[in-house]
């Protein structure tokens, strides 16, 4: 059986968004968008992995796959809820207007129709794609009901009174929208309102709406918000919102901010962990596949971020690394080159203005009161990708950094998760230069 440690990676071929993230019957289940034939996007399936602790992942068979006329071209993103002991998996069912005759895994002229569907699993182990699958919302027939193509990514939750709510991402007249539905049983749904705003980009993908310590948060992935010609134009943001769960009325309460300032993370999803804390995992977009996996898996492209808690601090949403991750880094690094051993490395220390740290060729420094990073030396030869990143101004000229490094990912938690900046990398070397207080490694 294939295992991953710390980051869930594609078991081979392609993954994108996390789906159906849930703590269910004592284990974490993480499903994900998966194309099982090549390391590039195509007809979507839901891959599946389980974990006891969010850091040791066990790959399972593909859970959801196209099997009905309405989803014959893809099982797009969605979410999970537990209902009377069963696992309900909601997703967007895709049907192309016409298949591209040269590649049936893509739609001709990118035209398709979307409806919303459900698979009920009795146990999180068996997924009957024939008899336990049903459509719960048809393709929108009128503009008021949503865009027939770009309405997707159902996030379903139980309201305070036990009934169900669903939020979908959509678009209208080029402006991102949220569509709300309610249901008494999770099976029959009625429209409960909509909300549109340019802060939701041209189309909103993967909305996630939750109440944290009495204040509502909208997480979402608005398309086209960094349209400067560099990959990637679509980014994940959080916003404080006012939301009434009974009427589904929503109002923005502040400006959007990035979930991760490296701008590689996309389509994050949250759930509650076993302690009742909100935890987030996002998709780390990779510009090319990894060909030479040491565990022999097929070329793989795409992985999940480390699990991060979601917490308010002084009106600001923070994303500290999950304590199950830090608990793994118990071994002081021996020798001078822990990166050369390809083990996960954790670096902690205070970065001050005037210093530049070098982590395997990845550079970090402070400038204009911001943390700045540059991955030019470790994302070589890939034109069109953003190489540098910075946080917003910190109002200080030093910051505490907690950096997690694995072969293809650097994740930087600043001041305990006040800001997080993560970058996909290729070809880190063994350089380690910086004012680190501690350097530790982890063993699976
Ligand atoms: C976001 C997204 C979702 C969609 C899925 C398709 O990355 O475009 O909106 O459901 O990926 O794979």
Give me the secondary-structure topology.
Blueprint: E1 3-5, E2 13-24, E3 27-35, E4 45-51, E5 56-64, E6 74-83, E7 86-96, E8 99-100, E9 103-107, E10 112-121, E11 133-137, E12 152-158, E13 164-172, E14 175-183, E15 190-196, E16 204-212, E17 215-222, E18 237-244, E19 249-252, E20 257-258, E21 265-272, E22 278-284, E23 300-301, E24 303-304, E25 308-309, E26 311-313, E27 316-318, H1 323-326, E28 331-332, E29 345-352, E30 356-359, E31 362-367, E32 370-374, E33 388-390, E34 398-406, E35 409-414, E36 419-424, E37 432-433, E38 436-441
Parallel strand pairs: 2-23
Antiparallel strand pairs: 1-5, 2-3, 3-4, 4-5, 6-7, 7-10, 8-9, 10-11, 12-13, 13-14, 14-15, 16-17, 17-18, 18-19, 18-20, 21-22, 22-24, 22-25, 26-27, 28-38, 29-34, 29-38, 30-31, 30-37, 31-32, 32-33, 34-35, 35-36
The protein binds beta-D-fructofuranose.
């Amino acid at each position: 059986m294939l295992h991953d440690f710390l980051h869930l990676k594609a078991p081979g071929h392609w993954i994108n968004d996390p789906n159906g993230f849930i703590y269910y019957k004592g284990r974490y289940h993480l499903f994900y968008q998966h194309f099982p034939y090549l390391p590039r996007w195509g007809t979507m399936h839901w891959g599946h992995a389980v974990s006891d602790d969010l850091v040791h992942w066990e790959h399972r068979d593909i859970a959801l796959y196209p099997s009905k006329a309405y989803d014959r071209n893809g099982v797009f993103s969605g979410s999970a809820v537990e209902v009377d002991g069963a696992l309900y998996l909601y997703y967007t069912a895709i049907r192309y207007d016409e298949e591209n005759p040269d590649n049936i895994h893509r739609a001709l002229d990118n035209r398709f129709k979307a409806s919303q569907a459900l698979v009920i699993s009795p146990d999180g182990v068996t997924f009957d794609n024939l008899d336990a699958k049903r459509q719960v919302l048809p393709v929108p027939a009128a503009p008021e009901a949503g865009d027939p193509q770009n309405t997707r990514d159902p996030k379903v939750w139980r309201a305070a009174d036990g009934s169900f709510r669903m939020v979908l991402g959509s678009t209208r007249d080029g402006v991102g929208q949220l569509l709300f539905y309610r249901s008494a049983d999770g099976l029959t749904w009625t429209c409960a309102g909509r909300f549109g705003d340019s802060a939701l980009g041209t189309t909103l993908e993967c909305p996630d709406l939750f109440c944290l310590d009495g204040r509502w948060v909208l997480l979402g992935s608005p398309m086209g918000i960094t349209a400067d010609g560099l990959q990637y134009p679509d980014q994940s943001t959080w916003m404080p919102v006012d939301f009434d769960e009974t009427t589904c009325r929503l109002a923005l309460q502040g400006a959007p901010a990035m979930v991760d300032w490296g701008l590689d993370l996309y389509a994050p999803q949250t759930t509650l962990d076993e302690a009742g804390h909100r935890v987030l995992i996002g998709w780390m977009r990779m510009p090319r596949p990894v060909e030479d996996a040491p565990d022999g898996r097929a070329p793989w492209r795409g992985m999940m971020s480390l699990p991060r808690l979601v917490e308010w601090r002084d009106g600001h949403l923070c994303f500290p690394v999950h304590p199950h991750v830090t608990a793994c880094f118990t071994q002081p690094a021996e020798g001078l080159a822990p990166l050369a051993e390809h083990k996960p490395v954790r670096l902690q220390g205070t970065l001050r203005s005037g210093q530049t740290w070098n982590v395997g060729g990845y550079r970090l420094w402070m400038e204009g009161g911001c943390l700045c990073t540059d991955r030019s030396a470790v994302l070589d030869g890939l034109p069109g990708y953003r190489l540098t990143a910075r946080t917003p101004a910190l109002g200080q000229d030093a910051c505490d950094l907690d950096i997690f490094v694995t072969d293809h990912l650097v994740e930087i938690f600043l001041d305990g998760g006040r800001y997080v900046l993560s970058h996909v990398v290729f070809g880190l070397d063994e350089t380690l230069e910086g004012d680190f207080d501690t350097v530790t490694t982890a063993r699976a």
